[in-house]
Amino acid sequence: MTTTTTATTTTVLDASDVTMRFGGLTAVRSVDLTVNSGEIVGLIGPNGAGKTTFFNCLTGLYVPTSGTVKYKGTVLPPKPHLVTQAGIARTFQNIRLFANMTVLENVLVGRHTRTKEGLWSALLRGPGFHRAEAASHARAMELLEFVGLEKKAEHLARNLPYGEQRKLEIARALASEPGLLLLDEPTAGMNPQETRATEELVFGIRDKGIAVLVIEHDMRFIFNLCDRVAVLVQGEKLVEGDSATVQGDERVVAAYLGEPFENAPGDEEVAEVEAAEAHAETTTDAAPGKENDR
């Protein structure tokens, strides 16, 4: 059942007691997180905190060892393409575009979960197929205009500057018409001007009625952008609240300075978890058919 928080606000994402273990190593431990409609929520933490692993649990790349992930009250299936169909889209820390396809074609790939035409329609190329193709093309161009890439629709994705590749990945994610967008370090490698442009883009996405959950290392970006911020440290949620609450928490400051706090795991355990996360990510990327889930 969808949780109603106000007359117009509903819980879009409800992750409850999510735990992810790799063998005997625990990368994410009993994390609870909600994202409501109309919200931008940040997820921060030092390197190796388990942020991307948690994202992967939300989007079906990993099946959590325990806990549940719900989208608008429905438990999500553990398959990335089914999670996308349900209404959650994401970008990746390392850009994953189809480099030898055009900018427009990359966005059209993102439309596949929202097209109704089947195999026979595509083979016969009847009126229904042509209508669907025209509608997808028009919507893709709208999204490219939204992110500022409409004039580069026919350029190869690999020829775009880095910041524009980030924008293209966001446009492709939006092509699936999500109710929730997950952004994994969207400003990584950007200069200050590109970061400010990304901030405005995320606000624009929120204004279109799409909730946003974002991982980012740029603290100024996060605290300017987000309604709420949750902090992960060694796989556990340390604190959650508005920007002032999080910035004023001494445990958060200690975690970013590398200072230990009560019951904090040692460096060796943290290194083992990081290695397990990296191994699982490599295994997932190498799985047959993986590109279709990106």
The main β sheet shows up as:
6 strands, mixed
Distance between the termini: 29 Å
Indicate the radius of gyration in whole angstroms. Answer: 19 Å
Following the backbone from N to C, one meets helices and strands in this order, namely EEEHEEHEHHHHEHEHEEHHH
Structural class based on helices, strands and sheet pairing: alpha/beta
Mean pLDDT: 83
What fraction of the residues are assigned to beta strands by DSSP?
Answer: 15-25%
State the low-pLDDT regions, or none.
Answer: 1-7, 117-124, 287-294
Number of strands: 10
Describe this protein's structure.
The chain has 294 residues and is of the alpha/beta class. Helices cover 40% and strands 21% of the residues. It has 11 helices and 10 strands. The chain has a 6-stranded mixed beta sheet with strand order 6-7-8-3-9-10, with helices on both faces. The protein has a 4-stranded antiparallel beta sheet with strand order 2-1-4-5. Helix 3 packs across helix 5, helix 3 (103-110) packs parallel to helix 6 and helix 5 (127-147) packs across helix 6 (162-174). The two termini are 29 Å apart. Mean pLDDT is 83; it is low at 1-7, 117-124 and 287-294.
